[in-house]
Each structure stands twice: as structure tokens, then as C-alpha cells.
TrEMBL record:
This protein's UniProt keywords: Glycosidase, Hydrolase
InterPro entries the UniProt entry points to: GH, GH_1_N_CS, Glyco_hydro_1, Glyco_hydro_1_AS
Stored Pfam families: Glyco_hydro_1
Domain of life: Bacteria
Keyword Cytoplasm in record: no
GO biological process, one term: carbohydrate catabolic process
Record-given protein name: Beta-glucosidase
Length: 478
């Protein structure tokens, strides 16, 4: 099975994890700038004492420096071009454009930076695929407005989205609204700005925040279509294929419910344009009722009219569900939980490796929605060793990616409409969950350690040359 001629091979990154320059040229702080690095990062943020204070005596803040893409973007994009990228997925840092988030006037210096990045992509015939919000709302909106549960954020985001869409839509055709919007079920801090102190413990707030994001996303679809009739807007979900642990109907039902609540809920609204029939039951399971949510008829009409054009999703792992309590071995490290699947191995960070799960995901999403699918994240977080001669032999990463690309090929043969593949962290960057540099995904090595020490030098890994060949042969040489 051949990959389509215009298949979007490329790579993906996010502003907060690679740009650095966190306080340059008028940029405001984003929620990520207040997240300490290290394996305990998510536990600290989820704790009752976390209040966004930046304490540089106690913690390292790796997002402040990222990999300094802010000053290296030309060279980095040239390296992507050397691999033959057709698309580069990156995000705009909202607080670079609106430092607090609630201003009327954008920060021109911030807009100019993305002008330069986009121009560089276009120069190399790389399609920019832009995420409007990748885990980094302006910190001010989280602290002073209480994050996405506050409906005022819809207007702020609308203004931000319209500003950047108007500015770049002559050169940008692919837009994604909120990165991994459904991840708030497990860690609402990143995409919704919710911590314990402003209501993360109440599921109703998370669902209200989702509703507000759905509406904001619909405004972005409207703006993109009005600015350029050829524009394509996708939602973005984290998809972790989920299996019932065994044939026990109790586990099968639990898995079905899990899929509704996690894998499908947000996509159901954003793709179909209306709430699914199971929504009231899901609200009830979460301790509130429909009338507790503030959803106006105008908003519901907007959702119906401006649903997304395609689905983009990240795929790293699968999970297994046991509701009977018979299975006691949980998977560790993976923030989404679930029990250990005895048929799968896992990365050092506990993410279960399952290429067949990707083929299943593609079929499931295709069957359910029948819209184009774009895999905008996939990859293996692993430690790399630089050899004495400076080379990095990352055959483990090549094996992971090869198996997943093969699964995409099989899904194409199954009849699934897939438009592109942009593996995560095409250049090493700061990990979202742990703030580490040592959890690396890239084809390009960046000399930087977990404490932020290093030369920032970029080096092509073995996987760089391998992926280059994959792209040149349009997936025929794996
Ligand atoms: C996705 C996020 O969840 O997974 C990225 O969209 C993130 O921002 C990626 O970096 C990999 O996760 P991690 O925690 O290994 O960086």
C-alpha cells in the first residue's frame, strides 16, 4: 500500500517546550513558565499548595530556556527541510501575542517572530501546521480569571485566534485549536489553567472549561474559513487506544464507558457539532447535572455550524481497563493510568508501546467520524547516548517509528483517510510531563541536560537519516 502523493510527512513541536526567550520582546508569562522541571512536576502541580509561584531558588524552570528555538529557528527549520519535511507542526505562544491575554492590542514583536518562522517554512516548501493553544495559556488568565472555566476566556481566545489567523492565513492552511483538549480529564492544569486552588477538583469546572473551549474553537473555525476558504481546521485529541482487559462483559462495558468519557467526548462535540446522547449520563457520573453547565442556545448553534474539518490526534500508547479489581498491576509513569497489558512492553517512562493500537485507533476514528485524520504526534521518549565520535545511534527510536508507520500503512490499506504524520519532538525539547531534557524524542539531538546546562549544539541522530529516506521514498523504504 502506497502513501498518498501529497501525504504530509513532517514533525511536531510546541512553543513552550522549545522556544525559550520566555521574557523577550514583550512576551508575557504562560502557565508553563510556572512549572518546575523534574520527575515530580505533575505531582507538585496537582498538589494543594501549588499556586503558580515561580521560586528559582528551589526549582529549575526548563520552559524558560526551552532549546532556544527563538534564536535557532532558521537553522532548525533548515534541518527539517534537509529531512524533507512537507509539514511542520508548531504552536504559537499566546502570551507572546497577548502578554496577559485580555489586551485589545497585540504585541507586534510577537507577531513578527511567527512571521519569520512561517516565512522560513514557506521558503523550504514546508506547510506550517499551527496549533493555536498548546498547553500554554497566558498565566494571567489562569491566575486572575480562574482559567478556562471562566466564560470570559472565550472572548479573549476569539480575539487572539482572529488576530493570528488574519495575519498568517495567506501562508497557513492548517490550523489546530487546542492541543490534546481531552487531556484535562487527567491534568487540567496544562490546557485549562485549572489547579486545586482554582477548582480543578470539581469535575463540573473541567466540563464547563471544555464547553468554553468548544465554543472558542468554533470561533477559530469560523475565523479561519472566513480568512481563507481553503483553510482546514482540526481539533486535537490525545488518543490512547483502550482495551477491555478480558472478555468479561463488566470489563467490556467499563472500556466502552471509558472510551466515551476519554477518547470520544471532546471529539464528538467538535466534529459532530453537538453533544453526544451519553453526555447527561456522563455528567451525572461526575456529580452534576446538565443544568449545572452554562451553555447558551447561541453557543450550541455556533458549535453546530463551525465544527472542525478534520481530526488530529496524538498517539503514544494504549491502555487496558479492568473494572473487576482482579488485576492489580497498574502501569506506572503513564499519567492516564490503567492496568498493565501483559502483551506489551513499555518505555522507561511506563508508556506501553503498541503500534497495532495505532491501526485500531485510526480505524475507530474513521468509523466513528468519517473525516480526514492527521497523526500530529507519535514517538518514543528515550535516553540517548552520544558516542565518543559524537554520533547518536538511536535504533530503538527507529524501530518504534518504523512499526508505527507500518501501522499507518496498514490502516491506509484498511481504507482510512489519513492526511499526514508529524512525529513528536522532531528536535529534542523539554518534556511536557516531567520537564526533563533527557526524555528525548528527536531526530536531532540538542546538547542540553535536565539542569539546563549544555552548548545547545544540534546533531543529526541515526534516525535523522532514516526518516529522511522514509520521506524521500514516500514511505516505501522503512
Ligand atoms: C503530548 C503533548 O502529550 O505528549 C506534548 O502534546 C508532549 O506536549 C508529548 O511533550 C510527550 O509527552 P512528554 O511528557 O514525554 O513530553
Amino acid at each position: 500500500m502506497k502513501f498518498p502523493e501529497n501525504f504530509l510527512w513532517g514533525g511536531a513541536t510546541a512553543a513552550n517546550q522549545l522556544e525559550g526567550g520566555y521574557d523577550l520582546d514583550g512576551r508575557g508569562l504562560s502557565v508553563d513558565d510556572a512549572l518546575p522541571g523534574g520527575k515530580q512536576r505533575m505531582a507538585i502541580i496537582a498538589g494543594p499548595n501549588f499556586d503558580w509561584t515561580i521560586d528559582e531558588q528551589q526549582y529549575v524552570y526548563p520552559n524558560h530556556q526551552g532549546i532556544d528555538f527563538y534564536h535557532h529557528y532558521k537553522k532548525d527549520i533548515a534541518l527539517f527541510a534537509e529531512m524533507g519535511f512537507k509539514a511542520y507542526r508548531f504552536s504559537i505562544s499566546w502570551s507572546r501575542i497577548f502578554p496577559q491575554g485580555d489586551e485589545q492590542e497585540p504585541n507586534e514583536a510577537g507577531l513578527q517572530f511567527y512571521d519569520l518562522v512561517i516565512t522560513e517554512c514557506v521558503k523550504h516548501h514546508i506547510q506550517p501546521v499551527i496549533t493555536l493553544s498548546h498547553y500554554e495559556m497566558p498565566l494571567y488568565l489562569a491566575k486572575h480569571y480562574g482559567g478556562w472555566k471562566n466564560k470570559q476566556l472565550i472572548g479573549f481566545f476569539k480575539h487572539y485566534a482572529e488576530t493570528v489567523i488574519k495575519r498568517y492565513s495567506d501562508r497557513v492552511h492548517y490550523w489546530l485549536t487546542f492541543n490534546e483538549i481531552n487531556s484535562a480529564a487527567h491534568f487540567p492544569v496544562l490546557s485549562q489553567g485549572l489547579i486545586q486552588q482554582n477548582g480543578a477538583n470539581e469535575p463540573r469546572n473541567i466540563f464547563q472549561a471544555w464547553h468554553n473551549q468548544f465554543v472558542a474553537s468554533a470561533y477559530a473555525v469560523k475565523a479561519a474559513h472566513e480568512a481563507n476558504p481553503d483553510a482546514q481546521v482540526g481539533n486535537m485529541i490525545i488518543y490512547a487506544t483502550s482495551y477491555a482487559y478480558d472478555a468479561d462483559p463488566i470489563n467490556q462495558l467499563a472500556n466502552l464507558k471509558h472510551n466515551q468519557a476519554f477518547n470520544f467526548y471532546c471529539a464528538d462535540v467538535q466534529v459532530r457539532g453537538h453533544y453526544p446522547s451519553y453526555a447527561p449520563a456522563l455528567f451525572k457520573e461526575n456529580g452534576f447535572t446538565e443544568s449545572d453547565l452554562d451553555r447558551t442556545s447561541d453557543e450550541l448553534a455556533l458549535l453546530a455550524k463551525y465544527h472542525v474539518d478534520f481530526i488530529s490526534f496524538s498517539y503514544y500508547m494504549s491502555s487496558a481497563i479492568d473494572a473487576t479489581g482482579r488485576v492489580t498491576e497498574n502501569i506506572s509513569g503513564n499519567l492516564m493510568g490503567g492496568v498493565k497489558n501483559p502483551f506489551l512492553s513499555a518505555s522507561e517512562w511506563g508508556w506501553q508501546i503498541d503500534p497495532t493500537g495505532l491501526r485500531i485507533a485510526l480505524n475507530e476514528l474513521n468509523d466513528r467520524y468519517q473525516v480526514p485524520l492527521f497523526i500530529v504526534e507519535n514517538g518514543l521518549g528515550a535516553r540517548d547516548t552520544v558516542q565518543a565520535d559524537g554520533q547518536i545511534h538511536d535504533d530503538y527510536r527507529i524501530n518504534y517509528l518504523r512499526a508505527h508507520i507500518k501501522a499507518i500503512q496498514d490502516a491506509l490499506a484498511d481504507g482510512v483517510n489519513i492526511i499526514g504524520y508529524t512525529p513528536w519532538g522532531c528536535i529534542d525539547l523539554v518534556s511536557a510531563s516531567t520537564g526533563e531534557m533527557s526524555k528525548r524524542y528527536g531526530f536531532i539531538y540538542v546538547d542540553l541536560d535536565d539542569q539546563g546546562r549544555g552548548t545547545l549544539k544540534r546533531t543529526r541522530k541515526d534516525s535523522f537519516y532514516w526518516y529522511q529516506k522514509v520521506i524521500t521514498t514516500n514511505g516505501e523504504t522503512l
